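Input chain follows. Return structure tokens only.
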Amino acid sequence: MPALFLSACFENLVQNTVEKAFDEIHEEVTSPVRIQKEWEEISDVEEQVQIAKEYSTKLATNSKKAVYFNTKVAERGGKNAQLFLGNLYYRNYMFTGNNFTQDLPLAEKWYTKAADQGSAEAMLSLGELYSKGGKGLLSNQQKSGEWYVKGLAQYLASAQKGDTEAKFSLAELYKSGKAGERDLEQSAQWYESAAFDGHVPSVLKTCQNYFVGKGVDKSRIKCYAWCEVARFLGSNATNMAKASLSQRQTQEAENLAQHLIKKIQLKK
């Protein structure tokens, strides 16, 4: 799932418009009038979307621009911008420079818009939002369950089509049981499927699963092999199974690692 998250930043956000909230952010940041002018000077729609994304990753220094540009893109139907705003008003992401407070009705608004466009992350966030409730938003377990089911189904559909990030998110969901019953076997299967795509976090999870036997039969040889795959892909993780294998087992694990690496290379 797959899914990057920003944590709660308008200290006294009492208005529902971005422009009125600007005064609560640092004075040294560009004024709303200048931001609006900058927006209007960018006529290319794709460029507006790209700049909104860039400001989203630089919130500490461009918080006003991030909110303003993403709101404009979100109002025009941009799914990623809608998800960004939902996360902004709900997740309480922490970053240097600003302090936003939660606004659950705004989070609900933007998550719903993103979910209606097929964002599985937004669907699951709505499930969590309705499960907990809070200031300005009543808990609703029926809605929570419905959105969790939709989110899981969306990730499953994407994963079955080969989406690596969806596979990883699905594995995480089955591991946690957040969107239903916990299923460690399903979790391990999707981690390994994503691992064969060369997804390093999934490779490391697969290595760990074989080390402790979580959702799979314990195998130090397979653990060793997947750890070597991770190292081949650029991870500096220590091979946790190395000390527990005999010389013969180590050779077997090395051979398996080379086999796995070849399979991953053929998929790319």
